Amino acid sequence: MYVDPTVYSGAPAEARDSREMAVYARLDALGISYLRCDHDHADTMEACEAVEAVLDVSICKNLLLTNRQQTDFYLLMMPGRKPFKTRDLTKQLGCSRLSFATGEQMQALLGAVPGSASVFGLIYDPEQRVRLLIDRELLHDAYISGHPCFSTSTLKVQRQDLLERFLPAVGHAPTFVDLPWPEEC
Predict the structure, then answer these.
(1) DSSP 3-state helix, strand, coil percentages of the chain (rounded to 5)?
(2) Who's near 71: CB < 8 A, 6+ residues apart?
(3) CA 150 to centroid of chain Cα atoms
(4) Residue 107: what pLDDT?
(5) pLDDT, averaged across the chain
(6) Rounded to whole angstroms, how far apart are CA atoms 130 and 132?
(7) Secondary element (H or E) of residue 37
(8) 3-state SS assignment for residue 160
């Protein structure tokens, strides 16, 4: 996978998909600075490791989940290397079994294509149909990363800017969860 070794500050000079450009415009309008790394399509955590090295940030795993009835949706942000077990989350939320949302649901709710879900897609959820869940472990990092609705770029923003400026501006208050690491045998 090709990763551009240059770290950019701000939006790309060339026009890209309007949904991606809207993420940059919203961050700029809020006065939130961010660094950007451009790369080939990176929709797995393994592919993101090279991006992690260029941006000097831990890659955040973002999962769009739904309940069995597909009436409730959750965007889960967690450390990229932490394994995800549905039962650990459903216990904390007190809900029925969760599964992954479809690509169509991801596009409708977050403006993102599969493999590109991130907190930045919440600009496309003004009705607040998606409940944001953040693993508390991410609060230990000074920066948060995510795709701007397409997995050919990754953004690095200060955690405080995300929590105190971006999320209030898009009308989403996070629910913090504690997902465990697997026990060693």
Answers:
(1) 35, 25, 40
(2) none
(3) 11
(4) 95
(5) 93
(6) 6
(7) strand 35-38
(8) helix
And the tokens for 22? Answer: 């809207």
Around Cβ 161, how many Cβ atoms within 10 Å? Answer: 18
- Band of pLDDT at residue 112, cut at 50, 70 and 90: very high
User: For residue 36, which of 27, 45, 168, 171 has the smallest C-alpha distance?
Assistant: 27
5 Cα distance to chain centroid: 22
CB 121 within 8 A of CB 101: no
Within 8 A by CB and 6+ apart from 97, the residues are 67, 68, 86, 90
pTM above 0.85, yes or no: yes
Is 155:26 a contact under the CB 8 Å cutoff? no
Closest by CA to 89, choosing from 111, 107, 65, 59, is 65
Per-residue tokens: 40: 């080939």
The C-alpha atoms of residue 42 and residue 101 are separated, in whole angstroms, by 19
- Beta-carbon contacts of 80 under 8 Å, excluding residues fewer than 6 positions away, are 45, 48, 52, 58, 59, 60, 61
CA distance readout (Å), 37 to 13, 112, 118: 13, 18, 15
CB–CB of 107/154 below 8 Å?
no
